[in-house]
């Protein structure tokens, strides 16, 4: 059962004002925390990012790709789809690059819930699903493709076509994403 970690680092970071993957916590780029949470649990790590991110960071034992040209800039679904198309596995652990409090324990707990009866293993935290910190079965490739073809890019719409296993989690901080400079100054600096 091959498992690939996908780190989504290709967003435009409009609200943040600069690439969030490069923002620092304790002197390390945000992207580092997602990679380190995945490293002990997955067989391979794929970072979906724009070329300017790759030129500024260096990580060993990771693959870098961009969105497939026809879906470039179409959001997280495009990034997930691009990684699945280029890297075959049974399960894919998806993380964004802007969650600098994520840790291995969360990923391990999700992976332990992997069940072939489901397409998606998604944390449920404080009353909300967390589809960008989740595990997806290879079967979702066709479901994502259908969404992209219909120009439907919302994660929750995609999830409505999946058999989802919700995993309740009490710890909130690992799921905190940093979207704005105000959040950065409040939680990081």
From TrEMBL:
One Pfam family in the UniProt entry: NTP_transf_3
Gene3D superfamilies: Spore Coat Polysaccharide Biosynthesis Protein SpsA, Chain A (3.90.550.10)
Reactions mediated catalytically: Mo-molybdopterin + GTP + H(+) = Mo-molybdopterin guanine dinucleotide + diphosphate
Gene Ontology MF terms in the entry: GTP binding; metal ion binding; molybdenum cofactor guanylyltransferase activity
Obligatory cofactor(s): Mg(2+)
Family (UniProt): Belongs to the MobA family.
Domain notes: The N-terminal domain determines nucleotide recognition and specific binding, while the C-terminal domain determines the specific binding to the target protein.
The name this protein goes by in its record: Probable molybdenum cofactor guanylyltransferase
